[in-house]
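## retry 2 of 3
previous attempt timed out at serialization; input unchanged, resubmitting
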Amino acid sequence: QVQLEESGGGSVQAGGSLRLSCEAAVFSYATYRLAWFRQVPGKEREGVASIVNDGSTVYADSVKGRFTISTDSAKNTLYLQMNSLKPEDNAMYYCAARVRQYPIAFSPLLSPTAMDYWGKGTLVTISA
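## retry succeeded, writing output
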């Protein structure tokens, strides 16, 4: 069982920045895929950014150039640096993970079906 816990959400004006963190005890596994998703009421959960153990990343088109996903294995933490925030970035943000104890080729993916473990979310509110 992998525990995930997000933090760092809050309220910020459009154009501002936030950094989300997710405590994720995944770095002892041979293979992992981590990702950030977001969801607003009435809409499907949307993949924002994903990273795998070899450092490969993928981003949703809506956040490319503004958001950066990264990890710090020494701190067991996944990050999402969000810059130039827009009102449409308003959402509950979730971190998610899939892990394997054996080496296998994982690609970064933005589909919820590519993840097995989920945090409870952290709320990001952007005011115009």
